[in-house]
Specification:
With 112 residues, this protein is mostly helical. It contains five helices and two strands. The chain has one domain. Helix 1 packs across helix 3 and helix 3 packs parallel to helix 4. It is globular.
C-alpha cells in the first residue's frame, strides 16, 4: 500500500508542475510540499522520481520548476540529477542547464 501512496504523490507533483509550466512560472519547495503533504526537505525523493519518469518518456524534467525561496534556483540535487538523466547537460554550467530545461518545460505545454 505505501508504494501506491508514493506513486500518487509522484503523479500529483507531476500534475502540479505541468500546471506551473503552463503558467510560465516556478514554484517554491515549501508551497509544493504543502500541496502534496511532504516536508520540503523530503521532496527530493519524489522530484527525482518525477524527473526519472519524465526522462524515460522523453518529457522535460519537471523538477526544473521547483526553486528555493531565497535563491530562486533549484537545489544542487537538481543539477546532479539532470546531468545523470541527460547526457547533453554533462558539460553545461548550472545556469545554462537550468535555462534549457525550464524552456523545455514551457515548450512542452504549448505543444498541441
Amino acid at each position: 500500500m505505501p508504494e501506491t501512496f508514493e506513486m500518487d504523490r509522484v503523479d500529483r507533483i507531476a500534475d502540479i508542475l505541468y500546471g506551473v509550466a503552463s503558467g510560465g512560472g516556478v514554484i517554491e519547495y515549501v508551497p509544493l510540499g504543502r500541496r502534496v503533504g511532504v516536508q520540503p526537505n523530503h521532496l527530493g525523493h519524489f522530484l527525482e522520481q518525477v524527473s526519472a519518469r519524465a526522462a524515460d518518456r522523453d518529457e522535460p524534467l519537471w523538477s526544473a520548476l521547483v526553486v528555493s525561496k531565497d535563491s530562486r534556483l533549484p537545489s544542487s540535487g537538481f543539477y546532479v540529477l539532470a546531468r545523470r538523466l541527460r547526457a547533453e547537460y554533462v558539460n553545461l554550467d548550472d545556469q545554462e542547464l537550468w535555462k534549457r530545461e525550464k524552456e523545455r518545460c514551457y515548450a512542452a505545454v504549448l505543444r498541441p
